[in-house]
Amino acid sequence: MIDRTADRFGLRPERLAGDTAYGSAEMLNWLVEERNITPHIPVIDKSARRDGTFAREDFRYNHDSDTYTCPAGKTLTTSGTPATLPVPSPAPPPSSNRAASASASRCYSPT
Asked: CA 55: distance to chain centroid?
C-alpha cells in the first residue's frame, strides 16, 4: 500500500498509524529502518509465555549492576556489546531482550 500510494500520488508518509495487526517486530523494523517512517502502532505483546520459558515479569532487574535475576536466582548477563548510552532510570523497560529470551532450561538449577 505504501508503494502504491507513492507510485500513484507521489506521497511518501513520514508517519503511519495502524492497529496491532501491524505491530510485529519485523513490521516495525521494516517501517523504521527500511522506509524511514515513524510508526504509531501498538506493539504486539508476546510477554506471556506458554512454551516452558519464563515471562518478562518473572525476572528481577538490578539497576546498580544492570543485570537481571531469573526465578532460580541466577544472574543473567548480556552476550552483546555494552551500550554506550546511559541506562534509563529507574530501570529499562521490561521488553529487554535479555529477560525475554532466557529460557527456563538455561536458568534451572537441579538440586
From this structure: 13
